[in-house]
Amino acid sequence: MLQPRLLAPFRALERSLTSIRSTHSLSQPQSVLRTLSASTFPKPQTPSLPRTLLPFSQVRYASHASQGTANRHSRDPAGKRLGAKRSGGEYVVPGCIIFRQRGSLWFPGENCGMGRDHTIYATQAGYVRYYLDPEKHSKRRFIGVVFDKEEQLPHPRNAPNRRKLNMTTVPMQERVEPQSDLTASVDADGVRVEDVEAVKAVFGPQLRPGYMYREANWEIGRSAERAGIFSMGYDRRDRWTAWRKRQQRAERAAQMKSLKGKKKSGKK
Amino acid sequence: MVHCERASKPLLQCLRGSYSRGVAGVQLQTRAFQSTANVREAETEAPSQPFHKAPDPALVTSPRLERRLLRQGTTPIGSRRRRAALQTTDSIPFEQLPYQCFQEARKVLLADREEKLKEIETMQQRIARQQALPVEEAGGAKAQKSRVTAMQLHLERLKVLADINDPSVKRRFEDNEGDMSKPIYRFLADRKWREYRRKILVQRITQMNVVPDVLPHCDPVVETKLYFGKRQIQAGEFVEAKQSTVAPKLDVQMFEGGEKLVTIAVVDSDVPNVEQDSFDYKTHFLAVNVPISATSTKVDLSQLLEDSQVVLPWLPPVAQKGSPYHRLSVFIMEQKDSQPLDFAAVKQKETSRDNTLLRTLQTRYHLKAIGAHLFRTQWDATTLEVMKELGFNGADVELRRKRVDPLPYKRRNPSSFR
């Protein structure tokens, strides 16, 4: 189909041609030959030149287009940008993508991992190597990362693995368990309830929402621990305890039910 | 009724009927062969206590009683299904089961056994003759030695073949009553080990890279079990620092005859070295000249002799906070020709625990790894306490991952983007 910008010059051309045609029509009766020819042949309704241009402005119907063009590039999807992102010997850092692929054309070798879509990425900083390891697998191609620039892969079968610690020492830190807190304070304006950060939280009773002078909820929750009271953990295989508890609950329910009945009967 | 009891009931009913009719007389004659039957006889004679008070390990079927027995230290014998079957069967020796086909088959097996015994005898005579031969006549000492070795191997094979079809041997083996000094039980135990436990062990030591990291190669031929206190540690299991403060106990089961002298080493291959940005090795235990055999399997690392065996005493393993887990690999290494090493020389030479590679020791003393085991340690709640006891320097620091700088952004081949 012709696009609008292509049509524009044609339209301009057509306009110039119509001006020529009008001059022709003025001089027409003077020529005999022209009249003869006009009487013998049917008169052209439209000027001849625009007719030659017509196919460009015509519509192509679906039946025509569906037969397809010779080179159908429109059907091809966009490229997925697969392939090597880092070549052999290039420096990579952990997480750096080395190869994108559909299926496992390449396998992760030393210090490399394979992602969800078979992408090969580095797990250590180093230099990329593309290699074969017939002792490991006869047909697979591997991508590995080595620490030294001159190092070659694969390593001998029984050599100890070359590894790096990649760690530093820091002074050990005690873990502070954050416990945020709600407190209330009474001003001239009225009572203000605040959310106190864990770091600023104060132990012991203080004024809290609802005009209560008490400990924080989390402190109350841990009071049993402070008092040294421990309950037995739940063991799902301990059917004896489970049965006893169930029995107690049933007894209590029965008791409550009987009381309920008595009350009713008493009322009646 | 327990499931297994229900399953074995129809068979038992059938058996009971036939026994009471057919083999009552025979039973009396052959009672001496039966072990479980005797127990039952004694029980029926004096049922002083009800069964649940004193459960019999050969007959117990309920899981609760089994557990009680286990807690007392006795293992129930055989499968639960078999124990259920024994509860209701009369005591008939296995050899006299009243099936014609069975008895015919037994005859064939017995004939085969006779044949094998005869072959053993001839083979023994041939070996004796070969050994008595002068070296010149035998065609050289080397040829004679190789011939004798081949014949001895064949003899061992025959010894196994003579007994392998015996149902009572199979039964005794399955009841863990096999005598490991006999070749047939060693053969059966080896086969059983290789079927599953050895495969797991080999998988663990290869997957956790113990084999290329600590030693270049290891083909385990002895079964090794490791205990901290009473608890058995599976290969590759994590062990708490508190648990591993005392030296472990080993159970090294050999499947060959004779006695061997072995070197036992426990090596940590993951000691972090922050300065060099790598990992070091540390020897946590080293003992030489430890005798093992098929019948004496227990080796308590803390009970070995200080003055003739222990080169480096047990050092409790600890892992610094944040460091990757430590693999503690235990290697049983056979000494060359089972000859004792010179303890004083070894003790003098191997003084440093740090960075002595087991590979070096292997070549230095001509050792060969015949057994392996593995456990791991990592930082846990008890580690700090153990570190303080040990005076470990580095207890107040933790390891953190070093940040790797990202690569600078580089526009790749910009002309193609235009």
Describe the structure.
Chain B: Its main location: mitochondrion. Chain B: This is Large ribosomal subunit protein mL38. Chain B: It is found in: Mitochondrion. The complex is a heterodimer of chains A (268) and B (418). Chain A is an alpha+beta fold and 268 residues long. Chain A contains 7 helices and 13 strands. Chain A has 3 domains: 4-66, no CATH class; 83-146, OB fold (Dihydrolipoamide Acetyltransferase, E2P); 176-250, no CATH class. Helix content of chain A is 32%, strand content 19%. In chain A, the strands form 4 sheets. A 4-stranded antiparallel sheet of chain A has the order 1-3-6-5, with no helix packed on it. In chain A, a hairpin with an 8-residue loop joins strand 7 and strand 8 (141-146). Among the domains of chain B are: 3-96, no CATH class; 196-390, Alpha-Beta Complex (Phosphatidylethanolamine-binding Protein). Chain B contains 15 helices and 11 strands. The longest helix of chain B has 33 residues, at 100-132. The A-B interface holds A 91-94, 96, 125, 157-161, 163-173 and B 209, 211-214, 216-217, 272-274, 277-279, 321-323, 394-402, 404-407. Strand 9 of chain A pairs antiparallel with strand 11 (397-401) of chain B.
Which keywords apply here?
heterodimer, A: 268 residues, alpha+beta, OB fold (Dihydrolipoamide Acetyltransferase, E2P), 4-stranded antiparallel sheet, 7 helices, 13 strands, B: 418 residues, Phosphatidylethanolamine-binding Protein, 6-stranded mixed sheet, 42% helix
Compact description:
The complex is a heterodimer of chains A (268) and B (418). By secondary structure, chain A is α+β, with helices and mostly antiparallel strands. Helices cover 32% and strands 19% of the residues of chain A.
